[in-house]
Amino acid sequence: MRKLVFASCIAALWLTGCTKEESDPFATIKPDESRFTKVTLVEKLNEPMEIEVFANKDVMIIERAGKIKLYQNATGETIQVGFIDVYPEREDGLMGLAKDPDFENNHWIYLYYAPKNTSVNRLARFDFKDNSVDLSSEKVLLDVPVYRDCCHSGGSIEFDANGNLFLSLGDDSTPFESSNYNPIDERDFRPENVDAQRSSGNANDLRGAIIRIHPEADGTYTIPEGNLFSVGTEGTRPEIYVMGNRNPFRIAIDQHNGNLFWGEVGPDAAVNDSLRGPKGHDEFNLATKPGFYGWPYFVGDNKAYWKFDFAKEESLFQFDPTAPVNSSPNNTGIQNLPPTQKPLIWYPYDESEEFPMLGTGGRNAMAGPVFYRDDYEDSEVRFPGYYNGKVLFYDWMRNWIFMVSLTENNELDTLEQFMPSTVFDKPMDMQYGPDGALYVLEYGTFWRSQNDNSGLYRIEFAAGNRKPNVKVSSDKKSGSAPLTVDFSSEGTVDFDPEDVLKYEWQFGKAGTSTDKNPSFTFEEVGVYEVSLTVTDQDGASATQRLEVQVGNEAPEVELAWSGNRSFYFGKEEVSYAVSVSDKEDSNIREEAIDFTIDFVPGGYDLIQTGPEEEIISVGETLINQAGCKGCHGIAEKSVGPSYEQVSEKYKDDSDAKDYLINKIQNGGAGVWGDTQMPGHTHIDVSKIEEMVDFILAISNPESSKSNLPLNGTFTLGEEEMAEGYYVVQASYTDQGANGLAPLQATEQLILRSPLVSPVFADAFDHVAKANDDGKNYVRFTEKAAWFKMNQLDLKGIGKIEFELDPGSIKAKIQVRLDSPEGKLLGETALVDNSIKAGKTWGIISIPIEQTESTHDVYFVIQTEDGISIWNTFNMNSLRFIR
């Protein structure tokens, strides 16, 4: 029989002349990121929550404040098709959306929302016809009683292949009054929302669970077979499929096997506590069958919390994941809970030992759909078979997306980042459309804000001809009229080398050009949107834009600095001079020039939000790095007040600085509403002082630290080995001109310790980051591998010292300028394991040729040995020596 089947296959291939691999060249080969294009469909949404892609590629979008919008694929326009009057505070509002599996015939959609003037959140069905949601057609399936004005509402809706509806529900419990550990405060005088045992740990409550029901045509629902508890089981709710969840914000269903995935947003505790239990972790979970997933007794890979007596502040015992017991007086369900299941992936704020590729920082885990190529139409943008069976796992705070594949036993197999070079601004929901492209909804920077960088995007795949990747730049973005600007398309690439490209520039309404790098003169004052559209010979095109302001030329700031412009070397007196000129401002007032030198303490890395943006304030930098802008904008109110509001409130209060430092450290509520701000005891008080200085200076610049004189000397610190860096910054904002807004110019130096970890280099080629025994280092994994540090000032530096672990490899490290093959400044001798002299790491130093100007510096390995990911050459640090 096997021979017969094989012969039939050969005959079929002979007749068609095409194998599956030939029709899908990326069935098993990972495609390069260049084959994906992120296309903008809608911008500037107001707190978008979930999407639903229809058969005609229209996309329904819900916004938390109640609007229901429709992106129309045929026209590219977005219209409002409905509005639900919701309670939009805290995490409530219009939260969940799904279309019925038989939508093409019945036109039903399902919404999960917080009805105004109620204490319930509601799952309801509506008719959607003729591009309008018929509110009068509402069928209420389920009301979930909630503690209004709390937290963790969940609300993600998904259907499986059998027509069962899954709805995720958060624990409705505040984390802040339990020091960001597990909220299990059982004291009878406390509000109910401080004990998640009444919700997530309660088998008789739907909160903190993902429920599974089967909607019926009459607007009711039935219970499918196989939920966690059978119908009629005392002390349980039969709707529950999985329980023990804290905040399962986004869920996904594998339509082929029914697997349920969800991201579990974990608690905020930053450190382990001997009295309470483990630090917070987020989780990426998989349920192949019903189960209990631990909260509020366990987190991460079943790390156990302590049973904590809040009255006596005593730890009684650690919970047992094999036999969890809910003995809370607030529990209305069974006491003996099912054994706790483990997540697929778990990770804390700091680096994960198990999954270091997930990075560090804020956390907000979410689950996206599973891809199967044959489920979608044979379109030009359909994803390839390489992603078959892989589920999307993404993080709202960290702005990355991973593809996760499983073994046949539903265990974690591979974890690979998807489109790592592409920017995703708070990815909120994802869905594959009928065309097999990935539709991505992005929330934008600030929580509870209408963000300009929010939007709906379609990620298209190109197996054959690819769209050009367009880059635009200009030598000027502002200036006096008439203004001549040199524009450049440098960096624009088409990854199909045979393509001939056509360039079309549009200079607002002022003119056009088909040159590759045109020069254009704007004669009149105004703000011009300049666009470049690049089209290949097959008609595939892409567009990029930039803005040019004509009528006000930016000031020029110069900072003369006698010391090295990249490093500080212990105690050293440096002379400096700041000068400013501006074409429109006839009188430059020295008091309007800001010049500061600040030291940013160790533990925080320099973070810039874009290639052209600079740090304007050390305090604002620390706020960005601490993740505070997830809840507070500079001008935008979010979960908490804007920093402008805070600054205005306290600008005349002499005790404001001490008060705000204490508030940030210890948290609290009541000043701006009932929302509890968590404490930040893990942040050093000196950093909090910088944050408060920045906030108070918004409305009262005089409250900030005094500017330094514009000419003089400054003594850098004594600690050459200290972590952290100096920010030397001079800035001036002009007075505006011709009706155009003022422009600011800044000259800035970042001076860091000459002892540098290569982990923080700016670019890597076949160099991997690693950690072991408390060290963070890099591994060279191929011959001629390199890492790069951007724009280093090597003036006065005559030697570089390396800390190395060569393993079994003999190699030398080269130092080159501007490219891996650029000018050789110096190289080590051939280094082998003898350098270590019985130690874990060895040290070698080399002289380098001195250079006066700044350059990109490459560190390249050269070896004849068999270097690989298993046999690596390692570097822990390098020191620049004068």
TrEMBL record:
Protein's UniProt name: PQQ-dependent sugar dehydrogenase
Domain Cytochrome c residue range list: 614-699
Domain of life: Bacteria
Cross-referenced PROSITE patterns: CYTC, PKD, PROKAR_LIPOPROTEIN
Classification lineage: Bacteria, Pseudomonadati, Bacteroidota, Cytophagia, Cytophagales
Coiled coil start-end: none
Pfam families, per the entry: CBM_6, Cytochrom_C, GSDH, PKD_4
InterPro entries: 6-blade_b-propeller_TolB-like, CBM6, Cyt_c-like_dom, Cyt_c-like_dom_sf, Cyt_c_ID, Galactose-bd-like_sf, Glc/Sorbosone_DH, Ig-like_fold
Keywords per UniProt: Electron transport, Heme, Iron, Metal-binding, Transport
UniProt cross-references to SUPFAM superfamilies, sorted A to Z: Cytochrome c, Galactose-binding domain-like, PKD domain, Soluble quinoprotein glucose dehydrogenase
Domain PKD: 468-550
